[in-house]
Write a structure and sequence with these properties.
By secondary structure, the protein is of the alpha/beta class. The protein contains 11 helices and 13 strands. Helix 2 packs antiparallel against helix 8 and helix 4 runs parallel beside helix 8. The structure holds pyridoxal-5'-phosphate (PLP). The site of pyridoxal-5'-phosphate (PLP) has 13 residues, from helix 5 and helix 6.
Length: 414
C-alpha cells in the first residue's frame, strides 16, 4: 500500500511536469495559504500592482486628457475584445459594463424587447437552480420594465422540453455555481433557435477555465463576471456579449451618454452607437477596468486546452481522493462525476461542513462554505497545484479522524 508521503510525491511529480507550472509565479500569491476561491475571487496578478500605479500616475499627471490620450474611453471595448478572445467571440461583440447582475438586466430587457412580438412571446425561461441574483434580475425585468412578460422556472434537466413558441429568451448559467454542472451550450442554442427563441448565457463560472466558442456555437447573448477566473480583482466589472447578427437591432434600457453614437456632441436626443458600445451607459470604473484588463491579459496567456486538461485533472483527483479518504466519514461529492459535464469547482456535502471549513482555514486552506452543509472548492488551474489538492484532502481527513476520535471518547464517558 502506498504511504501518504509516497502518494504526495506522485502529486509533486504531476506539478513538475505540468505545462502550466510557470503561470503561478505570475500571480502574487502567498505560499502559506492556499485559496480554493478562484471561482469566487481570483488572486492579484503581479502585473496589476504596476498597472494600477501607472493608472494613478496618469490620473495625477494628465487628468482628463488621459481619457483620450491613454484610451481610457475605449477601454470597455478594448478589454471587451480581449475577453472576446477567451470566449471565442470575434472583435466588436463584447464590452465591459457594470456588475454581472446589471449587465444581465440590460441584456434581458433587450432580448424580451426584440422577441416580444406583440405579446406572442412573453416568457423568460430559466431553471430553478440558477444563481439567485440572476433569478431576482429576471423578476425585476418583468416587474419594472416588461410587465406583460413572465418568468418560468423549471428543473434544469427539463429545460429543453419547455422551449416552446411562447419563449422569448432562455436564461441559463453555463456552469452551475453549486454543483459545477456544465450545460451543452450548442445543443441548447440549436434547440432554442428551432423554436424561435434566443438564449442568454451566464458565463461567470466558465470563462477562463472552460474552453468557449460563442461564435461557433451560434450563441446569441452572454454575460459574465470579471473577478472570478478572469482575476480582475474585487468588484471588477463584468462583460456583455451580443452576436453581431443581433447587434444592429439590439436595444437596452439604460440609454446613457456613453452608449450614444456621438457622446461629445451633447445633443438632447439619444441615438445608439452602431456597435457594441450601445450597451454601455456612463463612465466606466476606470481603475477597476485597468485591473480587469491585466487579469484578462494574464488569463489569455495560457493555452485553453492545457487549462481545461488541468482543470479536469484537478477535479478528478479531488473527487477520487475524497472518495477514498473522506467517504467513510460521511462526506459526499455532489455534482457530475463525468468530467465532460463538470466545470472547474467541486462541492462536498458534509454534516461537519462548518467545523471543517474552520479547521481547514486554521491550516491555511481557504474555501467557501455554502450553509448548511456544502463546501465549495474552486480549482483554478493557473495557480492551484496538484499537491494543493492532495494536501487539502489529507487535512480534511485528519480533521474528520480527530472529530470521530473525540466522538468515540465522549460517547464512552459515563
Ligand atoms: C458571481 C456571479 C454573478 C456576480 O454578480 P455581480 O452582479 O457581479 O455581483 C452573477 N451571476 C452568476 C451566475 C455568478 O456566479
Amino acid at each position: 500500500m502506498e504511504t501518504g508521503s509516497e502518494q504526495r510525491r506522485y502529486f509533486e511529480h504531476l506539478d513538475a511536469i505540468d505545462p502550466l507550472r510557470d503561470m503561478r509565479a505570475l500571480f502574487d500569491v502567498r505560499d502559506d495559504r492556499i485559496f480554493f476561491n478562484g471561482n469566487s475571487l481570483g488572486p492579484p496578478p503581479r502585473q496589476t500592482w504596476h498597472r494600477l500605479h501607472e493608472g494613478l500616475r496618469q490620473w495625477r499627471d494628465e487628468m482628463n486628457a488621459a481619457w483620450w490620450d491613454r484610451q481610457w474611453l475605449q477601454l470597455p471595448t478594448l478589454t471587451g475584445d480581449r475577453i472576446g478572445g477567451l470566449l471565442g467571440a470575434a472583435p466588436g461583440q463584447v464590452v465591459v459594463g457594470e456588475s454581472t447582475s446589471v449587465n444581465l438586466f440590460k441584456l434581458l430587457c433587450g432580448a424580451v424587447e426584440l422577441q416580444f412580438d406583440g405579446g406572442r412571446r412573453p416568457v423568460i425561461l430559466t431553471d430553478l437552480d440558477n444563481f439567485p441574483s440572476d433569478l431576482y434580475i429576471a423578476d425585476g425585468v418583468t416587474r419594472y420594465v416588461h410587465r406583460e412578460a413572465t418568468v418560468r422556472r423549471v428543473p434544469t434537466e427539463e429545460i429543453t422540453e419547455h422551449i416552446g413558441t411562447d419563449v422569448a429568451v432562455v436564461m441559463l448559467s453555463h456552469v452551475d455555481y453549486r454543483t459545477a454542472q456544465l450545460l451543452p451550450m450548442q445543443r441548447i442554442n440549436e434547440r432554442a433557435h428551432a423554436a424561435g427563441a434566443l438564449v442568454l448565457w451566464d458565463l461567470s463560472h466558465s470563462a477562463g477555465v472552460v474552453p468557449l466558442d460563442l461564435d461557433g456555437a451560434g450563441t446569441d447573448l452572454a454575460v459574465g463576471c470579471g473577478y472570478k477566473y478572469l482575476n480582475g480583482g474585487p468588484g471588477a466589472p463584468g462583460y456583455m456579449y451580443v452576436a453581431q447578427r443581433l447587434l444592429p437591432r439590439f436595444e437596452q434600457p439604460a440609454t446613457g451618454w456613453l452608449g450614444h453614437m456621438r457622446p461629445f456632441d451633447f445633443t438632447p436626443g439619444y441615438l445608439p452607437d452602431p456597435g457594441i458600445a450601445r450597451l454601455t451607459t456612463g463612465c466606466p470604473p476606470l481603475l477597476s477596468l485597468l485591473a480587469l484588463d491585466e487579469g484578462v491579459a494574464l488569463t489569455a496567456q495560457a493555452d485553453p486546452a492545457a487549462v481545461r486538461a488541468k482543470s479536469v485533472a484537478l477535479g478528478t483527483e479531488f473527487i477520487e481522493l475524497a472518495g477514498t479518504r473522506l467517504a467513510r466519514y460521511g462526506v459526499e461529492v455532489t455534482g457530475p462525476a463525468d468530467s465532460a459535464q463538470r466545470g472547474s469547482h467541486v462541492s462536498l456535502r458534509s454534516d461537519s461542513a462548518e467545523r471543517l471549513a474552520k479547521g481547514l482555514a486554521d491550516r491555511g486552506f481557504h474555501l467557501e462554505l455554502r450553509p448548511p452543509d456544502l463546501l465549495r472548492f474552486g480549482l483554478a488551474p493557473l495557480y492551484i497545484r496538484h499537491v494543493d489538492v492532495f494536501d487539502c484532502v489529507a487535512a480534511m481527513e485528519e480533521l474528520l479522524a480527530e472529530e470521530s476520535a473525540d466522538t468515540v471518547r465522549d460517547g464512552s464517558r459515563p
